[in-house]
Amino acid sequence: MAFDTKKNKDKDLLEAVGRIFEQTKKNFNIVFWNGETINYTEEPEFVLKFNDKSTFKKILANPKTMTFAEAFMDGTFDIEGNIIEALTLKDQFENIEISNKDKVTLLLKGTSFPSINLHTKEKDKENISHHYDISNDFYRLFLGSSMTYSCAYYKSQDDDLTKAQENKVDHICKKLRLKPGEKLLDVGCGWGLMITWAAKHYGVEAHGVTISEEQYKYVCQKIKDENLEGKCFVELKDYRDIEGEGIYDKIVSIGMFEHVGIKNLPIYFGKMYELLKEDGLFLNHGITHSKNSKVGKDESEFIEKYIFPGGELHTISGGISIMEDENYEICDVECLREHYYKTLVEWVRNLEANKGKAIEFTSDKTYRAWLLYMTGCAINFRAGLISIYQVLLSKSPKKPGFNIPLTRDYMYK
Known about the structure:
Blueprint: E1 2-4, H1 11-21, E2 28-31, E3 37-39, E4 46-50, H2 53-61, H3 65-74, E5 77-81, H4 83-87, H5 89-92, H6 100-108, H7 121-132, H8 136-143, H9 161-175, E6 183-187, H10 193-202, E7 205-210, H11 213-225, E8 232-236, E9 248-254, H12 257-260, H13 265-275, E10 276-289, H14 297-307, H15 316-325, E11 328-335, H16 337-353, H17 355-361, H18 364-383, E12 386-395
Parallel strand pairs: 2-4, 6-7, 6-9, 7-8, 9-10
Antiparallel strand pairs: 1-3, 2-3, 4-5, 10-12, 11-12
Helix pairs in contact: 1-6, 3-18, 9-10, 13-15, 14-18, 16-18, 17-18
Protein name: Cyclopropane-fatty-acyl-phospholipid synthase
GO molecular function, one term: cyclopropane-fatty-acyl-phospholipid synthase activity
EC number: 2.1.1.79, 2.1.1.-
């Protein structure tokens, strides 16, 4: 470690901090508010910049995700370089040991170093608006031309983001065995790629519902632009308000599962069962958390406060148990965890490349919050703390028989 320092009252403090960080992977450097640096390597993957002494002390006093996140959002703490690699430091801190000498130093410098159903229709609409109605222009900066805010599907390592998102909706269409003339419901339809793709390429009558005002306006215009009136339509409506029984041949839900709330999942799956025709198919595409490990409480609080209020993750086993309780047959389960990691890495790179426009469309604080959010999600997918599954369900038939082919070949033709 090369520690460039001048004679000043902060020398002991910074050296103590240097010894603490030295226990981590030495692929980064540190720059402090007074211009001093800790240089672990000549070619750092990233640089941690503490721009304010009071913020630095606050972080030392409470070295948690929320403390770092809020300092990053207001610019008093910064990361230059590979932000995905930088955020893996949070896992390394759990194994750090602090000597008695350094504990005393930190204490004398004025800080301590401790060991490292709200889902009503009204509340859900408020939460969705907070998350999705920021700005369509903002989302386009990192989602790209597909405007698809869910896990892509990479048939090849060479697929770009747009191709991978088209792969995803087509993969779902094949799993659902869509046929011309069938009625398809996309519950939580986002910016409309699924319904427009299914209408154009599979000849279905596609119905989308969303409770996001911005998404609704976007999809209405998209349907006009692609001359799909009469084949596609979208409604600004809560899933609990969709009327009818046995209306749809097929139903799809992509990224809606996380918004429903665990207590409301029986209502959600029950409603889809009611809307589905006999022998109909329903594909649920949603994020889950690992049964034996969850995203940390501090990270969850950050997401709830700044990004995704009302979001709740269940385990895949817990979700499937509810599906079975609602009389579905579980036809197929596919894990796409690596695909979502790759998707998020592309979103992070796109957002970083469009930093100026992102700040123009929203604010510097929003840009930083979303950069942290998506980077953290990428790391958690890579670590296996969270995952994503496509579960293909069949409405249990009243008469004996089978609803899907003998093999999975039909999904890949």
